Amino acid sequence: MTSISPKKPVNKALNPFIIEVDYIISRVYNKVAMKVKEIMTPAVVSVKENATLKEVNSYLAQHNVSGLPVIDDDLKVVGVITEGDLIRAMLPTYGEITDEESFMQNAEMIEQKALEAAKIKVKDVMSKPVTIDEDSPIMKAGYIMLARQIKRLPVTRGGRLVGIVSRVNIIGQLYK
C-alpha cells in the first residue's frame, strides 16, 4: 500500500508571488466584507414629507445632491425625493398633452404648471423608499442600486435614518 504524504507547508518568505497573492486576496476580501456603516455619509440631509418641492429644490442646490431621503417625525424613512421627481411634477402629463392640442404651444399654461409644482408637497410625488441596514455588506448595497437603478440608499439602524450611501461611496472604496 502506498501512503500519500501531506504537502509540505510553503515557505511564504521564499516565494514573493504567494505573498503578493495573499495580500491581494486579503485586500479584496476586506473590501467586500466591509459594512455600509464604514463608508456611508453620516451627516445626511433629509426632508419632511410636508415640505414643498420649492424647498426641496433649494436643499438639493444648497447641498449639491440629486436626491434626499424623506423622513417622518420619528426619523423613519418614508420615501425618497429626487431631481427627476421635481421635473416630472413640473412637466405636463401625457394626458394633458393629448387632451389639449394647444397645451405645448401655450407657454403660459406650461409656466403656470411649473409655478403650481413649486407648491406641491413632497408626500405627493416622492418615491417609495428603498433602504439598507447599516450592518449590511457594501456589495449588497451596490447590488440593490444596480438592480433598482438608483444612485443612493438611505442607511437605517432600527428603521431610523443614520446616513446615506451612494454609488460613489462604494466605487471609491472598491477601487482604492
Tell me the number of helical segments per DSSP (H or I, 4 or more residues long).
Answer: 7
Shape label: elongated
Major sheet strand order: 1-2-3
Count of all domains: 1
Q: Mean pLDDT, rounded to whole units? A: 82
What's the CATH topology name? CBS-domain
Structural description of this entry:
41% of the residues lie in helices and 16% in strands. The protein has 176 residues and is α/β, with parallel strands linked by helices. It has a single domain, classed as Roll (CBS-domain). The strands form two sheets. The protein has a three-stranded mixed β-sheet with strand order 1-2-3. A three-stranded mixed β-sheet has the order 4-5-6. The chain is elongated and about 55 Å long. The N terminus is likely disordered.
List key phrases describing it.
single chain, 176 residues, alpha/beta, CBS-domain, three-stranded mixed beta sheet, 41% helix, disordered N terminus
SSE arrangement:
Elements: H1 16-32, E1 47-48, H2 53-63, E2 67-71, E3 77-82, H3 83-90, H4 94-99, H5 107-117, E4 132-133, H6 138-148, E5 152-157, E6 160-166, H7 167-174
Parallel strand pairs: 1-2, 4-5
Antiparallel strand pairs: 2-3, 5-6
Provide a brief overview of the structure.
Helices cover 41% and strands 16% of the residues.
